[in-house]
Amino acid sequence: MLVAPDKFKGSLTAAEVAAHVAAGLRRAVPGVAVETLPVADGGDGTVDAAVAAGFERREVTVAGPLGHPVTAAFAVRGDTAVVEMAEASGLRRLPAGTFAPLTASTHGSGELLRAALDTGARTVVLGVGGSATTDGGAGMLTALGARFLDERGEPVGPGGGGLADLAEADLTGLDPRLASVELILASDVDNPLTGPHGAAAVYGPQKGASPAEVTLLDDALTRFAAVLAPGLADRPGAGAAGGVGYAALLLGARFRAGIEVMLEVLGFAGALARAGLVITGEGALDEQTLHGKAPAGVAAAARAAGKEVVAVCGRLTLPPETLHRAGITAAYPLTALEPDPATCMAQAGPLLEHVASRIAERHLT
C-alpha cells in the first residue's frame, strides 16, 4: 500500500494525512505493508513533503511579504534544493485579516533562493503558489541583485504598485551563480503574466485587490514586462504566484507542472513500483483537482504504471465518471461520516483512520 496524499488545507499536513491513513490500514489489516510518501504540487506544504521524503530542512530569516522578518524553510538533499516561495511570501505570512495587494513583495523569496545557492545546490526547484504578492517577482529579483528604478533613478516602491513608476531595469548585478544552476519553476497554473487571464485579473482578488487595484496591477505588470522582456509575458506559467513565474523565466527557469516535478524529486516512481494499491487525496476533490493538483498527478502516474488508485478527501464534488477518467477508482470523503464541516476538519485524523479501515476492507480483504 502506497499512501501519497497532499495536505488537507486548514486541517492536516500531508505527512499527518498519510500517518492517519496508514494507522487505519494497519488497524484493519495487521501486518499489511504500508509505505507513506506525502506529496505536494509546488504550493503550501512543498518543503514539508520534501523533508518527509528525506530532504534536510534548513531555516533562514528573510523578509516577509510586508518586509517584517520571518523564519522560512527550504529543503536540501545532495545538490538539489527545494524552495517554496510561500514560506517567505505566502498569504499565511500576513497578519490575520490583512491584505496588501499593492505593496506585498517577494523579496524574501529571493533571499530564500540565495540561501539555496549558498548550499552549493546545482538544481533548485522553485515551488510557487499561495502567494500574497502580485509584483511580477520584482522583489525576488531585487534580492538577487537586480535594480528597478523610476525616472529619477531612484528605486521603485515595493510590490506590484511600485512597478507603475518603473522606468529602468538593471540586471547586471544578478547573482552570477544563477547562470550555472538548473532552475525549475514548479507550478500548478499556466496563466500568462497579464491580461484577462493574467496574475492580477485571476488571482488579485484573492489577495485583497479591488477592481480598481486589479487594473492598476495589470497595467504595472504590463509596464514591468515591457521594460524587461515582453516576449516572456505570454509564456505558460509567467502569471503564477503573482508573476513570480515571469521572474523565474527571466532567470532561465524551465516551467513544469508542479506535481510532476515533485513526484520526481520525492522518488515516487520507486515507491510506485513496490505498490499494489495507491491511496492519494487532498482536502477537497473538485474541479480544481483536475487541473494540475497533486491527486490528479499521482493518479495519472499510477494509471500509467497499471496501479489502482483510490482517494481520501474532506469534501467530494466530482461524480464517479469524472473520477474514473482521472484514474481514481473510488473516493472516500470524510463528510460521508461527519457532515458538519467544522467538526469534520477538527476530527479529520480519527475520521481518516476510519475511512482507511473501510478502504482496507473493500480493497484488500
TrEMBL record:
Its EC number is 2.7.1.-. The keyword Ion transport does not apply. It comes from Streptomyces seoulensis. InterPro entries: Glyc_kinase_flavodox-like_fold, Glycerate_kinase, Glycerate_kinase_RE-like, Glycerate_kinase_sf. GO terms for biological process: organic acid phosphorylation. Keywords: Kinase, Transferase. Belongs to the glycerate kinase type-1 family. This is Glycerate kinase.
